[in-house]
Amino acid sequence: MSGAVSFAEILASALIVVGGGFALVGSWGLVRLPSLMERLHGPTKATTLGLGAMLVASVVWFQLALDTWTTHELLISVFLFVTAPISANMIAKVQLHRLRQREPGAEPGPAGMPAPPPGRTDWATHEAPHLGTPGDFEGDEPTELVGKEKEVAGTEPLPCR
Amino acid sequence: MLEGALAFGFAALGLALALNLWRLLKGPCVANRILALDTMVINAIGLIVLAGIAGGSGTSFEAALLLATVGFVGTVAYAKFMLRGDIIE
User: Fold this and answer.
1) How would you write A79-90 as a 3-class SS string?
2) pLDDT at residue number A118
3) DSSP-assigned letters across all residues of chain A
């Protein structure tokens, strides 16, 4: 019995170390990488691999060492595996939307500045924002956006919100 | 052995939270701050899971599940607000 316990301890310890290392590397990537689209890579890997390893360590430890079967951890990991790509996609949409609206302070990544949206459609939002909301066109015509871009390019770049 | 691994995990997650806090304060834009807050929630869930292993009780996992749910909803709501100027249209 002590052999099974020590095996569970070794496995849980290895999974905890791997998970903590991945979480640390993901947050280090969040600090270190130069632009937002690159920064998105680090924390998403920390979510899936780091937290996944820690949750599996918890399952292993409670099952093999303490003989209590818990499924909360699997529920958490399934939930995180479903929601992490969605939140990363939403953040990437925000960044792309801000770049396409030519908002001051939005820094483009290595892929460069994306083209302005044609007409009233935007790939990130499928529709231009309504009037009176943040990031609207201040009018219906795309020519308004061109004028806004020139105005932004001519003046000192404002601090971003 | 498990105590050493847990100490390493707590230290790594604490350092990761400090790095996320630096990114949250530095910015430089709203999208970076949303990403930093999302990562902080992930690391806090990791801390709760490790505390559950250290304490040997399964009751802390409800807290982790609730934090995962609330963190996802908060991230999506903030991103939706930045995209559309409204959360529920």
Assistant:
1) HHHHHHHHHHHH
2) 62
3) -HHHHHHHHHHHHHHHHHHHHHHHHHHHHHHHSSSHHHHTHHHHHIIIIIIHHHHHHHHHIIIIIS-----HHHHHHHHHHHHHHHHHHHHHHHHHHHHHTT-TT----TT-PPPPPSTT--TTTSSPPPTTSTT--SSSSTHHHHHHHHHHHHSPPPPP-
d(CA A32, CA B19): 10
Q: How far apart are CA B72 and CA B57, in angstroms?
A: 25
Question: ipTM greater than 0.95, yes or no?
Answer: no
**Inter-chain CB proximity B29 and A14 less than 8 Å:** no
How many Cβ pairs within 8 Å bridge chains A and B? 190
Cα Rg of chain B (Å, integer)? 15
The alpha-carbon gap from A146 to the nearest alpha carbon of chain B, in Å, equals: 20
Partners of residue B45 in chain A, C-beta under 8 Å: 51, 76, 80
The rounded distance, in Å, linking the Cα atoms of A48 and A82 is 10
pLDDT at A136: 58
Reported residue count of chain A is 161
Under 8 Å between Cβ of A16 and B11: no
**pLDDT (tens digit, 9 = 90+) per residue, B30-68?**
889 999 999 999 999 999 999 988 887 777 888 888 999
